[in-house]
């Protein structure tokens, strides 16, 4: 049992030290953006109560629609988000929602340990109770790929 735990810890350390890149896919177009580049170019900050942290958090990153428009040169209305752990979620009307691609929390870069290196959040809670985390199923952690999909 001890050997399994050590192996798992070594595997997680290797994973967390790995230099990640976000892969954007639009048909045959593929763009890879390093996490260091995403951190350097983050251009939006937003402070709000974070349901999963149960406290106010200063998020830094990009408004998703603007980010995809700039990176892919196309307006994106629907996308599929694929996480490092295999979680997969498709969202519609992303161009009409206040979605933020987060790279930092309270000035610190996101890591695997704190659900990074990239996370998708909604900056407009739309009247939902932020203390009821079951209402936030569109928040995606540990994003590694965003794929444009047809609506």
From TrEMBL:
Keywords: Signal. It comes from the Bacteria. InterPro entries: OxRdtase_Mopterin-bd_sf. Residues 1-21 form the signal peptide. This is Oxidoreductase molybdopterin binding domain protein. It comes from Marinomonas aquimarina.
